[in-house]
Amino acid sequence: MPKGPGEKRQWQFLERMLLIRRFEETVVKMATDGHFRGHYHLYIGQEGTGVPAIAALKRKDFLATTHRNHGHILARGADPGAGLAEILGRATGLNGGRGGTIHLCEPKLGFLSTSGVVGGCISLAVGGGYACAQRRDGSVTMALFGDGALEEGVSYEALNIAALWHLPVIFMCENNSAGAMGMAKGGYPSLVHASKNLLLIPKSMGIKSVRVDGVDAAAVHAATTRAISLCRSGRGPVFIEAMTPRWAGSDPLWPELATGITDLRMATGGAVPTGKHQAWFEHYDPVLRLARELANGGEESVHRLSALDEATRKRIADAADFALASPLPAPETALNHVFVQEASA
Ligand SMILES: Cc1ncc(C[n+]2csc(CCOP(=O)(O)OP(=O)(O)O)c2C)c(N)n1
Ligand SMILES: [Mg+2]
């Protein structure tokens, strides 16, 4: 039975991780039902990294993230209804329907930027870290990015400056390339890098670097907490490489619900993992893994899991109803929020 002060936190992690899972399952349904068009990216399989890493931050801290952002935004506490509405391009969305799936952003929660420009968030987070250092209030900035970001030139300049100026930046690299098909095999792009050990890159600049099992929420939380504490005391930056085997649904160019709707009973013995994704269900699904640890607490924990699942499904169903009932932005607002408007003749 998981006991002690850590158990409460584990339940809090599971609550957010499950919220993300049900949100993402709903996103796939909305896409296949034709409620929105265009490419999108799911955070399924990586909940064990984003949730505990972001939970280690304080309100005063900043974040910058990528195209695979849904989980990060929800982990930080954004409203799932406004998140789904944004994905559908509705006026009630987090960004008034202007950003869509790739740019879900919530500045009120400390997000500096969410961008589909691979590697862009690394340089923006270094700018954030510079601002934090100027403020002298112990705040830090976290960049959440994929392994592919280390193919981009801007990442090297940004890491270099962060190292030279000891900026309070946590570089959280979510390496999901293990098991990826990659474009060469007709799937989603994955890492193409000369270095077989990505940690050597920050290490060569003297940046403290650590690799962690990204499926293990407690390990990610411990590593991030240490990194944040170093940054707050002026001993940053820190680079963390969180390893998560690629979820099968993110392998093809277009996401698909390869492992179905997650059945939490697989964590409690009520359902037996089988089929071609059996190993994923048993070892690599971070939601099932944490739920399994908590279910070991006995019958009471099993009931609690089932109640949590029911409440989460309801919360996401309500969020989906809200998003689907929301209006598209009014045509006359099309030019709102643009930086420059041509002067009328
Ligand atoms: C600057 C830039 N180059 C190329 C792309 C096209 N692109 C979109 S996602 C992607 C792969 C990103 O891999 P990674 O950063 O590891 O994130 P993952 O999708 O694996 O989570 C690429 C190359 C892009 N969006 N931006
Ligand atoms: Mg990747």
Question: What do you see in this structure?
Answer:
The protein has 345 residues and is an alpha/beta fold. The protein has one domain (5-178, 196-247, 265-326): Thiamin diphosphate (ThDP)-binding fold, Pyr/PP domains (Rossmann fold). The chain contains 11 helices and 6 strands. The chain has helices spanning 5-32, 47-55, 70-75, 80-87, 120-135, 153-164, 200-204, 217-232, 278-284, 286-295, 299-325, and strands at 62-65, 111-114, 141-146, 169-175, 208-213, 238-243. Strands 2-1-3-4-6-5 form a 6-stranded parallel beta sheet, with helices on both faces. Helix 4 crosses helix 11 (299-325) and helix 5 runs parallel beside helix 6 (153-164). The longest helix is centred in the N-terminal third of the chain and has 28 residues, at 5-32. The model has no long low-confidence stretch (mean pLDDT 95). The structure holds thiamine diphosphate and magnesium ion (MG).
